[in-house]
Amino acid sequence: MRLVTRASDEWPPQLDHLGRAAPAGLYVRGERTVAELAASPSVAIVGARRCSRAALAFTRTLTAELAARGVAVISGLALGIDAAAHEGALACDGRTIAVLGCGIDRLYPRTNDDLAHRVIAEGAVISEWGPGVEPAPWRFPVRNRLVAALADATVVIEASRRSGALITADHALALGRDVYAVPGSPWSELGQGTLKLLRAGAIPIGSAADVLDELGLQITVQTTAAPPTGDAGTVWTALRERPRSRQALAVLPGLTAPRAAAAVTELELAGLIVLEQDGTLVALEPTVSGVGYTRRDQGV
Amino acid sequence: MLALAHSQALVGIDGHPVEVEADVTTATHASFTIVGLPDQGVREARERVRSGIIAASFRFPYERVTVNLAPGSLRKLGARHDLAIAVALLAATGQLPKHRVERVLLLGELALDGRVRPVPGALLAAETARRGGIETVICARASAREAALVPQIAAIGVDHLLDAALWLRGELVLDAAEPAESAHEDEGLELADVRGQPLGRRALELAAVGGHSLLLVGPPGVGKTMLARRLVPLLPDLDGPRALAVTRIHSAAGLLQAGAGISLRPPFRAPHHGASAAALTGGGVGPQPGEVTLAHGGVLFLDELSEFTRPALEALRQPLEDGEVTIARVTGRARFPAAVQLVAATNPCPCGGLGGCRCTTERLERYRARLSGPLVDRIDLVVRVDPPDPEVLTHDRPETTAIVRERVLAARAHQVLRAQTCDNGRLELGQLELHGIAEDARRLVEQAASARSISARGQVRLLRLARSAADLDGAGAIERTHVAEALSLHPRGDGL
User: Which of A154, B91, B217, B247 has its CA at 20 to 30 Å from residue B226's CA atom?
Assistant: First the structure.
């Protein structure tokens, strides 16, 4: 652990844009220098703690693909989207920084202990608060200004109307940085936050290619892997239309309950569908990057 | 004068012969004493026997009356010895011929007006009689057909003490009861009534083929109980020894319907979630068999699994593993059979989850931790039962119980053909490999095991389930698609 001040070589200059709101110093855990880890291009990834599993899978794929192309991933080490963002970046040995909302020695929440240590080993965990400072509800919004200030742009993935992710987006706008939002369903509570941002002029994004494009980086779109065929194809196509329950798949024309069940397993193991908490299955796009599908936190 | 009659005592689900000795001697003070470890119920027999004898217009001896129930080491419970005590007294006072009284076993409770009331365990009483070389059982008419189930036993059903007495004197002719008929059908539980749950029905089918334990996860009111009750009609008839064992247990517990024969159909027991450990596994004086024993040979359904107390679920662990219950008491150990198929149902989360879940992450985790406790690692199959959406209801074409049952029986026939002696749900890895596992099926097991961290034991459970899917397909070896289907029903860490 070390303290980095404005005078230090390690100080990320983009924090100075905060003006009087800039922190006096940063406590840092991790070998690599903060300035290098946070250097452009970089994105902040924020979103709901209680998000859908499809959003988790999306976040991992997105950050893995961004990290693989040299984009730094900044987030807050919270449950849900934050954790998935760090995981995706680590899966591709990319740059990632976790900004804590508590003292530098507290790795909150405890659930993410393993993840935090991996971020320390390969990236950095930073905080403006010294050892012993307890996590408190008011610290998290304050911390969010650092997340926004460190990144070139802020990506919001699934946020409810009153999500803390919107505070980060506000900070980004105040700093004159871009805000990207992933469109969600207008009927889902988790789609309301991003809908609000999009109406206010945020840039809609749906893939890593979109983010790279907006950041002005060269896009090398790799063709996606072949879609599944046979029973798996029938199931996957039906799920791309809309999410369905396993029961609904069992009555698809041309399928039987056992064959639909077998197809679901094959698709799940191939990372082409994901099972949500409410029991519905959601189709994912096939990718060739082959990263980010192991979901450690779900025990699946 | 001294006289002897035969009766029978129940200890748990075993019958023991009891000799009722009556001694009537002249004394200055009249008395009526029952000795031989009687409980309160047996002591109260004095009042019922006295009134019954008088109501049957016999003479009650106002002398020194002593009744001894032997052996003295065995605790005698309840009113089942009333009839034997009354008849022994009548023989001791010369009102009935002793040599005829000594050749029958008597079982029944007396009403104050002398009527004979049925008591549980007539079948076991008849077996006790046969073991002791007695060929005739006299009992209440309602239980005579049950007693007649034992071969070479003449069961005489009587309505009144007077009937029994006149028959013993040879003054009344009574026909021995016909053995009760067995029921082959379970009534009114039609699988096709469960519309909109194709996976639930398929899971039942698989469970019926292999005797796998099943967990139904879903919000209240979507038909979890309805599904669970429809497992029994899919199961085959019990084989001879198993049927007799089940009948014996139900006879001892007084659960046999009057006139019901040997229980060929597997029982279904659904104890309430407030049930104590003793109520589930057995206990109390006797000790009495618990729900897990009453479900022997059939299905034990635990609705609202998460509401059962931890000690109650812990207590079920050993019986589910061993197929029998051992109860240690001061007076000795009792062993009851308890080979059951477990079906459990639970809500997906504490709030019930209907119309979107509102539980916090912490609460959800606590709930799942509790669920993953003692019993869930005994579960082979998990199926999610949600309110069916209209699309499923429209397209669902449920098959009838008869059709599915036929498929189950055909699948079970494959097991018999390969000389398998246990259910698929109890096969060991070696046996599973012997029956064949295709190479790509094996690879899928390995892939899934590492992706979902399935333990070695979990993999065996998975293969057992895949074996049942293969049997339904009529396939020799387990193929990849069977493993894939089994995986979709395999329990996951998060209770889904």
Answer: B247
